[in-house]
Amino acid sequence: MRQRLTYLLLFLLATMAVFFVAKVVFMLCCGDGQPLAASDCVQVLLHGLSLDLSMSLYLLAIPLLLCLTCVWVCWPWQRVARLYPWLVSPVLALAFVADTSLYPFWGFKLDASCLQYLSTPTEAMASVSTAYLLWRLLLWVLATVAIALLLRLVTPRAPRRERYPVPVCHHAFASATVRRSTGSLSGKMGQTLLMLVLVAFSVIGIRGGIGYSTTNIGQVYFSTRQFLNHAAVNPVFSFMASLESTVRDEPHYHFMSDQEALQLMAQVFPKLGSEGRDAPPAPATDTLLNTRRPNIVVILMESCGAMCTALEGDTTMPRLNRLMQEGVNFTRCYGNSWRTDRGTLSTWSGYPAFPTYSVMKNPAKSRALPSLASTLLAQGYATRYLYGGDINFTNMRSYLQGTGFERLTWQKDFPLAVQRSADWGVRDDLTFDALRQMLQRQQRDERLARRQGTTAPPLLVGFSTLSTHEPWDVPQRELDEPIANSFRYLDRCIGRLVDSLRRTPAWDKLLLVLLPDHSISYGAYTESHPQRNRIPMLWVGGSVRRPVVVDRVCNQSDLAATLLHQMGLPADHFPFSRDILDPRCSSVAFHTYNNGFSVVDSVGRFCCYDLGAGRAVALPDDPNEAQRMRRLGEAYLQVASSHLQSIAAR
Known about the structure:
The protein is of the alpha/beta class. Helices cover 43% and strands 12% of the residues. The N and C termini lie far apart (63 Å).
């Protein structure tokens, strides 16, 4: 019995030691730019202790079961116990390597969202090089061996000379046999009781106590520096906790009564509650366009946050900065989300994004959403979409075709020689050329139609760029810093397109809308930074009446209603999209990231809340304003998730 108890204790301590080492390695590898002291490391280890203990007790379940059976049956349990490390060590090593590798890209701990990209592994791995993957594979193998050897070191060996009369089935211990254990009945009952007590304590430890609150990620948060909070989180626990919420699938948030939530949101989105009934008419706003039916091109600039533009005083993108002086410049626009699939849907459908759920990946819901494409298709527009990557990634094809895009041009439509000219597909200068050719064909069609006495349908083109994405591989080197250099490359592509179109009659009827799908964490611009999710939104082209600066706080999802009203079309079927120029709509922006949300109001107050941790990351100084903004963000998620639930019932 003493041997078994010693084994259980040493196994628990060994797994705790593994988690401690993993945390130190994480801080060393991912703390670039973070001021780290020895005291920070100690605080991370101490505050993360509860999650590490919970996961260690999870891993102790099998050893506990083995030791419990030995009370009544004498068998070589040590052989199974020595096999167990080789079963758990690959899983632990994979979690540690994946967490440390993904964090610099994503800015949050390992969770189940990575599983969403396994259906398209080529696209998922396009952010990194082959050498990068091979190094991670080697690290995974080395970590697996190291963890397994440590756990085997604390596992006792089976006695060599012990023989048992009853044969055992052919397993790892097939040459051994079992028999009933020796000892008095009272002794066995006492040992069984002791083992059951250990099981009970393990369950309590895994749960985090006997109260109502259970073990959760938020309990390890201790610092105003989010990196230290993330470092304290056990990546295996984070993955398992998020996997449980992913299994529940559709998001459902409930922070307050539905009536209170709807009342709060009605101040922001006047159309909520009036969908399909007496919707408020389109307001008489300033006319930004000189034609009601322009040819429209919406370019979703991959990852292009405001920190790369003049909006934040940056000169990385000089051509885009000059264009801001020539068109309609929405200076206080914010991205709805942190990923391309969410941002794309928010732009075209004017719909909210959710922290841990992608609406685009559920065709039954995404195809039922309103869309700029389907609305303009009904008005006689021809609709096209251009993307140099895999159009099947994150179910993009289903969404685009289901919401009104008639023709899709993607990676496989380009010559074979250029399909892998960038890690994500066809590089941007080539897809910008394809866009220019598409607009030139439209110009020829319009000219031919005039000769025949008819009218060619106006054109709507959606275009998603891809080169400004990890690993930032672009065919030019102007700036030393790779991220800034990739945005300079995108800026050149935009400049060449605009210069070529200005010299043609196609410019006269063109409305070119430039905005990102989302922003990125870059330097000090983390999710807790008020300007992290600020993005440029710019309307340029010959159809723009005059340069205008619009300084109202808004979201990219507001493009739909704003554009439709400028075209004299109703937008009441876009309940979450606001006309930015409508004075009845509150000037406020919402953003969701991985299991969190942020809110920015008209005077620049900022609230960022981590749902997984159950605590604020950033709040206004005024406690009343802090409470108001948090409730506003919670109401946004509650009403949006309720609306999403109702879509399936239609």
